[in-house]
Amino acid sequence: MINQRMDTKDWALLLLLSFLWGGSFFLIDVIVLELPPLTIVTLRVGIAAIVLWSVLLIKGYEVPKSFKLWRAF
Fold first, then answer.
1. Which residues 6+ apart lie within 8 Å of 56 measured at CB?
2. Considering its fold, how many domains does the chain have in total?
3. What pTM, to 2 d.p., does this model score?
4. How far is the CA of 36 from the CAs of 20, 42, 44, 45, 50, in angstroms?
5. Quick one: DSSP state of residue 1?
6. Does residue 58 fall inside a structural domain?
7. Domain residues for 33?
8. pLDDT digits (tens, 9 = 90+) for 58-69
9. Residue 42, domain member (yes or no)
10. CA-to-CA distance for 14 and 6, rounded, in angstroms?
C-alpha cells in the first residue's frame, strides 16, 4: 500500500469541492423560489457543459467531429 500525504494544493481542492457541492444545495433552495425547475436544470446542464468543454480545450483533447462517434453516446 502506498502512503500518500495530502499537500496544501490537495487540501485546497478538497475544500473547493466541498464548497461547490454543499453550496449547490443551498443555492437550489434559494433559486427554486424564483425560477421553475426546468429552467434551473437547463442552466445547470448548460453551465456544466461549458465548464467541461473548457477543460477539454485547456487540456488539449480533441472533440470527435464525426457523427458516427457521437451517435454511440
1. 63
2. 1
3. 0.62
4. 22, 10, 13, 15, 22
5. -
6. yes
7. 8-71
8. 999 888 788 888
9. yes
10. 10
